[in-house]
Structure formats: C-alpha cells, structure tokens
Amino acid sequence: MNVARPARCLFSRRLAAAAKPAAPTSQCHAPFHSSAQLAKRKPRFKSIRVEELGLGSPEKIEEYGKTAFPRYTPEEMEVLKKRYTPEQMDALEAGEAAIDPNDLTIQGRIRRDPYRLPYLDDFSKIYPIIDKRPKNAAPPSPRARFMTNQEHAEDLTNRLQALIPKDVNFENMPPEEIRKVLEQRVNFPLEEAKYFLEPETLVHSNGPTNSALAPALGKKLAGVAGMYKPPIDPADQGKDDQGVYQDLKRRTGLSVANILDITTKTLVIRNVHNQTRLGKIRSTWILAIAGNGNGRLGIGEAKSVEASVARNKAKLLAIQNMQPVRRYEDRTIYGTVKGKVGGTIVQIDARPPGFGLRASHRLFEIFRSAGIRDVAAKMPRSRNPMNSVKACIQALQSQKDPAEIAIGRGKKFVDVRKVYYGGNVY
To answer: Any idea what DSSP says for residue 40?
Structure first.
C-alpha cells in the first residue's frame, strides 16, 4: 500500500463494503445418510398424561398414599408390642411419623413388576437371595484349647457310657446275651464313624470342633454297605480291590498279575506353571517308561496338580503304549540305529556278548526295561532329558529287520554266528 494515498480512500472502501446488502443464503440441504430425520421419528412409548394416572390433584395424591401406605392398625400395634421393647416401639413410631405418604407417592419408586422384592418395609424376615446370612453361632471362646491324652481317654469313656442302654439290667447276664442286646440297641458302625470322622478335639468350646467338610460315607453303615463297590474281578485274586487296573486290563487284554510284573520307571520330572488371571497354577509333568524285560517297551507322559496322580497316570499310559522292540539274540540290537528329537541325537551301536550297557543313566534304564544287555549309546549333541528319552525310544522302534531286507532284495538270509557256533550263541 502506498503511504501517500489519502486516508479518506481507505475509509470509503470499507464503508461501501458495509453498505452493500447481504447476498441471500442458499437453502441448506440435509446431509446424505441412511438414517431418518429426527423430526419424523416417532417415540417408542406412548405418552401418558398425569390425569390418566389419577394423581392430578392433591386430594387424589392423599387418597392414594393412604391406600398404598396405610398406618399401623391398633391390632398390628398390639402384635408389635409383644415382639419389641418399649424403646424399639418408640423408634418405630418416630420413623413412621417422619415418613410422609405423600412424599412416597410423588417421589418414591415402587416396583410393580413380577420380579420385585417380596417386602417393602418389613425387615423382620431374612431372604437368602437378597439378605446376607446372619451369624447365628457365637464367636469362639477364648478359653478353648486342645484336649490332652487323658482328656481324650475320658471323652472316649463318656461316649461309650452314653451308648449303654439305661433301661436294661446287665447284672448276672451272660456275655453272649449282652453282646446280642448291644448289637440290637446300638448301631456300632454309625457311632464308630461319628467318633473317627467327627471327633471332639477342643475343651471349653462353645461350638462344634469338627471340620466343616462333609465326611465320606462309611463302608459299614446300614443302607450304604455294599452299594458303592469298585468293579472287582474274581480272577484278580484280590490284587486289585481298588479297581486301579481294571480300565487298563480292558484296554490291553493283560491280567492284573501280568500288569504288576511289568517294570515301570520314572525318568523325567518337571514342575510347570500355567499363568492365569488368578495367578500361577503349578503342575507336575512326569515322563515314565514301562517294559517287561523281554522285548516290549512303552513310554507315557502325564501332567497333574498332584505329583502322585501324574506319576500313576504316566505309568499306566506307559504300560498301555508298550510295543515290541527288535533284539538280536535277545541281548542287543541290529547294527547301528539313530534317533533325533529336537536338537538331541541318540546313536545306539550293537556290541558283542558280555560287553554290557554303556550309556547314560536314563538310556540305561530304557535298555534294561526292554531286555537289552549288550549295547553302547552316545549323544553327540544336546542331552535334554525329555528329548534323549524320546529319541532313544524312537531309535529302538525304528530298527530294520534283516530278514525283511533280504526278502526285498531276493537274497537268502543266513546268520553267520549261528552257523559258526552251531546255534550256541546265547
């Protein structure tokens, strides 16, 4: 801008622009979208006037309050006076006077649906769905303590004396008749179960001292005896009364005696953790093997929170997974075999009679369970416990039969050792 221009030119242009009439604004079109306009929408619920509810005037509000929230009648007051003390009655009357029925009618919200609470202002009843369970038992006595050995003996004596019928004269009665009377009048299995499953362990206590857990049913109780028995096969000769091996016997076809003769060994134990939103859950993972010492070998793995449960499951699975392993002269393997699992390689070589087992402790147990006596094994790479066991099992079960190879090649198979030694090679 030129500074020499007069000031009136600047102001004249501004005034002329302000004096011009504003251009007419174009009509605003609705934006393009699929939803309906707000002006055309209909309400979901029908409008209800106050007059239709019947609460349009103060007289109707007062009439509704007297009907919906009536005062206690004299008969109800007499019943309340029998249940509550005078101080409690004064508190009830003060509370009733402080609450205006008109306020409840106008501002209160009373549910009329079928799922409403079963009471409005009567808190004398306790509903387990809504209210908390009251603590009926008193707190434990501070004088409570555990019984001594002498007090335990006295407690047992008192229990036995309480079982003796008071209306029977046992004087000059033979022992056999006394036994018959006691068996008819006293349920000894039930009393025995009560004493051993729910014993009294404290003195000077104001409540029961037994555990809150429900005890197991006794095996000799009337009505229970003989009902819950595990499947027992008479052919087992009492070797599996708990029914532990019944499922395994059905799957494998072995008898319980044959299952018990199988050698089982736990080779690998690991503690694993499962991270959950509630914390870490610790479990035990176990790898076990099973073998009959005569050319059959199996492997089983199981996991459980309890180590004993995982061990039993792994051993049963190992017996179930037993497979035959080829053996040369029932003492060694055929040639050299290899097995690879992950980064672990196990190489097993056959050896002459009397060589023995030269391998790590886990592979030693595998060979001994399979009935292999002369062999050498080495692991040139990783020696991971789990992979070494699996690689050894894989190598033993992947042996090739020389007779099958000879048949495939159309050759005759002859064992030189048996020919040379005249068959005396064992």
So the answer is: G
Contacts of 255 (CB under 8 A, 6+ apart): 235, 236, 249
Residue 371 · residue 291 · CB < 8 Å = yes
Question: Whose CA is closest to 389, among 268, 283, 292?
Answer: 268
Q: Rounded to whole angstroms, how far apart are CA atoms 77 and 64?
A: 23
Reported as type and span, the H/E element at residue 176 is helix 175-185
Classified as helix, coil or strand, 364 is helix
> Any alpha helices (H) in 228-370, and if so which ranges?
246-252, 256-261, 307-320, 361-370
Chain position carrying tokens 């089983």: 300
373, 358 Cβ separation under 8 angstroms:
no
- CA 389, 395, 396, 398 dihedral sign is positive
Tell me the pTM.
Answer: 0.50
Q: In this predicted model, what pLDDT tens digit does every residue of 109-140 receive, in sequence order?
A: 667 777 777 666 556 667 776 777 766 667 77
Which two three-digit tokens encode residue 392? Answer: 């050894």
What is the DSSP pairing of strand 375-378 with strand 357-358?
parallel
